[in-house]
Amino acid sequence: MHSIRKISLCLCLSLTPASLLAQEKITAASDVGFAPYSMKSMSGEFEGIDIDIAKRLSEISGIDIEVIQQPWSTTFAGLAAGKFDAMWSAATMTPERQEMMAFIEGYGEALDGLLMRASDDDIAGAEDLQGKTIAINKGSSADAWLTERQDEFGITIARFETSPDAVQAVISGQADGYMMYKTAAGFAAKKQPMLKVSSFAIRKGAPYGYAVRPEDLELRNKLDAAMECLKASGELDEIYVKWTGLQPEPGGITNTPQPGFGQPGTKFYEETDHEMACD
């Protein structure tokens, strides 16, 4: 009798869709090394904003989220090929990406800010850029944005191949500021007291978030519901403050649960009314 039950159990498991089994434990690919979102600690463990979020969403949703390291350049292809279950990096929700992935509601907004010396006067607006030398990563979105406005702002652009070189240019006085992702600027300033983040920021109006394959909308919806709870409790704001030292804006994407499932306006968004079920 016991052997018959075991055989029946095995048959049931073998007939269960893989996407449903994966909801109990999923692998989530992260671009480890993209500070302050996903990094390796001195002990070799993963840490950062995305890691803290994964831990809390696991607890809220009941889904065991195992974060694995994946090069950013192969993340989207790997997700589509089924090598892992979720893309777990701060991916801006571009129209192209919306065609191939189902996004969970965004957990941040793509903002560029200026990392500058703490002893210098704040750069509060575009008018304060006049005559300044601004460091950027060569070929970045900030490079394109500033190049279009170089004459308008009256700035000199200093291009660098790596972020550490650009940061060093600010510290040494070679540049007055380094335009970069504002969360990354906050992380750098938190680690180095001689630096700070300017008030001036470029709001691109584009959220970023995690995603799953379009056929895994049930999984997306469970993770999305957990993300809503993380926002409503204020915990997501706390995670950002912990890693960047910057306080998210009230009423912003980090503390405002979105209606429905997914990010409103994206291709696989579901405008489904539901109540948050948060402990």
TrEMBL record:
Keywords assigned: Signal
Domain Solute-binding protein family 3/N-terminal, chain residue ranges per copy: 25-247
InterPro entries attached to this UniProt entry: Solute-binding_3/MltF_N
Signal peptide span: 1-22
Organism name: Alloyangia pacifica
Pfam families assigned to the protein according to its UniProt record, in alphabetical order: SBP_bac_3
Gene3D superfamilies assigned: Periplasmic binding protein-like II (3.40.190.10)
Protein name: Polar amino acid transport system substrate-binding protein
Coiled coil: none
